[in-house]
Design goal:
Length: 167
């Protein structure tokens, strides 16, 4: 049995969006509360290391792939008779594109780049407190936004697939 391209691409959209939402959600409910309990030096060094380590092909495939597969899946459903599925996919795509991808690119990434440019070992404790305060509050706010929108996108995609299977 050969699967149609639309089914394969929609599955990949579901998989990558789900993995992306899961990563952001898990970070939101565990890592953020854990990092609030460490020293300023430890927090900033840890974030520098994590921000460098996450720039890997697996993460990029999931993060960028979700957007690409959502767009592609939405396009493939455009001509379908049932416009409800298309609209749900379009909303899922817009949610991920604007609330997850764009917020990450315009919010989290510039903060990560700024933090990466700082030589933490050369700073006094008062400066570390200031840097952390400037970084952590903004970064966590952007992260919460992208988490919410990635979960919304995944949920809309699930509803679209459940709706499509009923017809």
């Amino acid at each position: 049995m050969e699967l149609p391209l639309r089914t394969i691409i929609t599955f990949l959209a579901l998989l990558t969006t789900g993995l992306s939402a899961g990563l952001f959600y898990a970070w939101q409910v565990s890592v953020i509360s854990g990092t609030k309990r460490v020293s300023d030096q430890s927090y900033l060094e840890t974030m520098q290391h994590i921000n460098r380590a996450i720039l890997n092909p697996w993460f990029m495939f999931i993060f960028i792939g979700a957007l690409a597969f959502l767009i592609w899946s939405t396009y493939l459903h455009y001509q379908m008779v049932d416009k409800g599925v298309f609209i749900l996919l379009l909303l899922a795509t817009l949610s991920y594109a604007g609330g997850t991808f764009a917020v990450t690119a315009a919010g989290n990434v510039p903060l990560n780049n700024w933090l990466d440019s700082i030589n933490l070992t050369a700073l006094i404790d008062l400066r570390l407190v200031e840097i952390r305060a400037n970084y952590e509050v903004k970064w966590n706010r952007y992260h919460l936004i992208r988490t919410v929108f990635s979960v919304i996108s995944f949920s809309l995609l699930l509803v679209a697939l459940l709706t499509q299977n009923k017809n």
